[in-house]
User: Fold this.
Amino acid sequence: IAQQPDLIFLDLNMPIVNGYELCSNLRRIPQFAKTPIVILTGNDGIIDRVRAKMVGCSEYMTKPVQVEEVLGKIKTLMPLNNTLINKIPA
Assistant:
């Protein structure tokens, strides 16, 4: 893997693979074992949240979201990794 992201956002409903499968597959790759994965979706059910945790997501957010909420999650999950994000007020 040439470039490893510091943070990954996924939706549950994607055209080729769903977010659960992708999250689970990413967690099996050693380079992504500790990379924060945020599932951002319109699905708000408890079963969706539990299943997302079971496949290894770090955080679960439901749409619609506010910019401040997304920035807050980024700051929480990457407190030292991104000094630019830390300069943006939440």
User: Anything to note?
Assistant: Residues 8-84 form a domain with the Rossmann fold fold (CATH 3.40.50.2300). Residues 75 and 85 are 7 Å apart (CA to CA). The first helix runs from residue 19 to 27. The mean pLDDT is 88.
